[in-house]
Amino acid sequence: MKFNFSGFKETLKLFKFLVPYKAQYAVGIVMLILSTLTTLTFPVLVGEMTKVLERKSEFSLNEVALIFACILLAQGIFSYFRVLYFSRVSEKATADIRTLLYKKMISSPLSFFESNRVGDLISRLASDVSVIQNVLTTTVAELFRQVATLVLGLTYLFFVSWKLTVFMLATFPITILAAMVFGRFVRRMARKVQAVLAEANIIVDESFQSIAAVKAYTNEDLEYSRYSGKIGQVVQLSIKLAKYRGVFISFFVVGLFGGICLVIWYGGNLVLEGHLILSNLVSFLLQSLFIAGSLAGLGEIYASIQRSIGASERIFEILEDQDEIQWTNSKNGKKLEGEVHFKDIEFAYPSRPDVTVLKNIDIHIPKGQKIALVGHSGAGKSTLVQLLMRFYDLQHGQILMDGEDGAQMDIRQLRSNIAIVPQEVLLFGGSIRENIAYGKPGATYDEVIDAARRANALEFIDRFPEGMDTLVGERGVKLSGGQKQRIAIARAILKDPAILVLDEATSALDSQSEVLIQEAMLELMKDRTSIVIAHRLATIQHVDKIYVLNHGEVVESGTHDELLSYPEGIYANLVKLQFNALTAKEI
Length: 587
Ligand SMILES: Nc1ncnc2c1ncn2[C@@H]1O[C@H](COP(=O)(O)OP(=O)(O)OP(=O)(O)O)[C@@H](O)[C@H]1O
Description:
The protein is α/β, with parallel strands linked by helices. The chain folds into three domains: 10-319, ABC transporter transmembrane region fold (Up-down Bundle), CATH 1.20.1560; 326-417 and 501-509 and 529-587, P-loop containing nucleotide triphosphate hydrolases (Rossmann fold, 3-Layer(aba) Sandwich), CATH 3.40.50.300; 423-496, P-loop containing nucleotide triphosphate hydrolases (Rossmann fold). The protein has 19 helices and twelve strands. Strands 6-9-10-3-11-12 form a six-stranded mixed β-sheet, with helices on both faces. A four-stranded antiparallel β-sheet has the order 2-1-4-5, covered by helices on one side. A two-stranded antiparallel ribbon has the order 7-8. The protein binds adenosine-5'-triphosphate (ATP). Its main location: membrane.
């Protein structure tokens, strides 16, 4: 594995998140130093105890035991505060990173969500941040502890017996380094097993998600054999892994204990020849075990830093991306009158820059007028609305609102003046009341009720036993398409915007809810500049002007009657088609 230095620099940048908590971090470091030093005295004390047994010490056994107890107590206290302070710092710093990352993500432009998969973003917030949480405190602390143990411990060993130290260094580190390399190989294999298991889980996920299709095609056997095939692979790989793991563990045990035996053998010889006293041999052995432990620990730290490099690169990639919203700006700025002018617009989506989706668009909507956009699927109707909301930047032209260029406006102020009632209404998990109040956070109960009444939604809300507090969304009651749309209308009424966009549902509703929705929409459109994306032409006969889009261009415009007067026109044809379809259905 090659060490990635530029990535490591990214990881170092993480430490700026520790700055607000530097005092607590410093306390943690001091506690760490103290607890490391006390640990290092253990072998010395055990040696001293042996000396007492050899009757070569100036202390009594009880005195040494008392010092031991005091040191143990101190060690306990230092460790407690070390864990406490480091955890406080790391929890707070990771919470800061997480919230900052979420804030950054949610205020990113829409195009950001098109180029990043939601699952990937969630995993950055959840697992990548957890990976670096370790590095922020534990890894740094451990690195310090292991290096200190290694340096101080070895110095002590040289001091006790340089001959035995050289002998020891020729045995232990080799075993440990070999174990580290082998360990990495085993871990890599274990990851492979995990990956195959994940593939098996994807099969379960996909087949359960589209269970209706599986059943309709009676493909249960096919799915079963796909799943059992993958599970078979998992078993095979796991058994192979177990063999390597077995070899690894026996090698490690034999190597480690073999090393200890060799050191005892050589040390014993030195004692017999009078070059070393027994108590020093005991301290030596214990200290060597600590050193072996810290060598192994360094391997872990290296792996953890490697992991964190990838994670911090993925996090900074987002943190350092461009912001859409300046958070300092107030949300509810100036209220617009509602005049809109799409002026000489040309546009291609950033993900497909060579496909011009809109061109030569010039649409002027005086304040309070209602217009409809008509055209076949893919003509560019929704794109025009997305540009109005400034979800994307224009390549050419301007959208003027009350004569002011939308691109120069504060984006939150601009959006606070527009409401959209989308085709497919998605409700948030929560009560109906919360869902309506989403249009105006902080709205009073009476305001919500009033909006629901004006949206013709109260009649069905009141029929639920819990009324406004009925839970909707994934775990709540399922509302029909028409009911959801009326909630969205109530939400828009509450927002009370100057400009309104209605994206009509493509699927026809039953005639009763159709009437209720039409009424609600008319109520909503009253005194507002409205843009209706029309799919069913019957509903737009009374708008002030209809624009027919074809391949991104306005090809016809006028009132319903004016457009019908061109028998060869696209609009007239569309009306004819829909009329035929309707009559065909009736026949
Ligand atoms: N996010 C996007 N990235 C790239 N291309 C897109 C994106 N959204 C839409 N398009 C393309 O832009 C063109 C216009 O799409 P748009 O959604 O505006 O059409 P529409 O008239 O609203 O269609 P419909 O009536 O089916 O909703 C289509 O060719 C579509 O493939």
